Amino acid sequence: LRHYHQLLEKVRIRDALRSILTISRHGNQYIQVNEPWKQIKGSEADRQRAGTVTGLAVNIAALLSVMLQPYMPTVSATIQAQLQLPPPACSILLTNFLCTLPAGHQIGTVSPLFQKLENDQIESLRQRFGGGQLEETLDLKAKTSLKPTVAETGTTAGPQQIQALMDEVTKQGNIVRELKAQKADKNQVAAEVAKLLDLKKQLAVAEGKPPEAPKGKKKK
Predict the structure, then answer these.
(1) CA-to-CA distance for 151 and 93, rounded, in angstroms?
(2) How far is 101 from 115, CA to CA, in rounded Å?
(3) How far apart are CA 125 and CA 143, in angstroms?
(4) Which residues contact 133 (CB under 8 A, 6 or more apart)?
(5) What is the pLDDT of residues 86-119, one digit of tens each?
(6) How many domains in the chain?
(7) Residue 98 belongs to a domain
(8) Range of the domain at 176
(9) Could you say which of 35, 49, 86, 214 is the most buried, measured as most Cβ atoms within 10 Å of its Cβ?
């Protein structure tokens, strides 16, 4: 938890997310090892132990809901609503783990946070956002190849056209960075990178510069 704070202070967003996953994994292991669903059927001591394990698990879930706020605010709010967390527990994130929920706290109705994707749904999404992106890129290249470039016509692009291309390059660059950060499908990333390279080429020509050659791997 302290490491999570340190990483966010250094704006290491992706590394901080790994801290959330680590805490979540430890919480799951704690529940699996103690098996409160079995202990609740045992002796009085077993039932008390089941209550302790469940209470600690709920507090871990409450902690994770606060840690998730910068990343998935909607999911965070859903968890907090299901746990019926009081406002103070949702607004403060300490550097040490403490059980913020009082004994006897009652949670609300719990439902799955994410829909389980079946194989046919995964294939449908892959075809929709994978191959489709490549076809769209090829179609875009075919259309742009038919248009005469600034160099071919011998004319010079105006300031407005150059600024418009610069804005498009910036916008497309942000799209590529977001996809890479989300570890999106490789085909989708490749399609968006192709668009970015094409826009950069158009901008270079508009500015009267030679288009940059694709960067290859350096030989050792």
Answers:
(1) 57
(2) 28
(3) 26
(4) 187, 188, 191, 192
(5) 877 777 787 788 888 888 888 888 777 766 666 7
(6) 2
(7) no
(8) 119-206
(9) 49
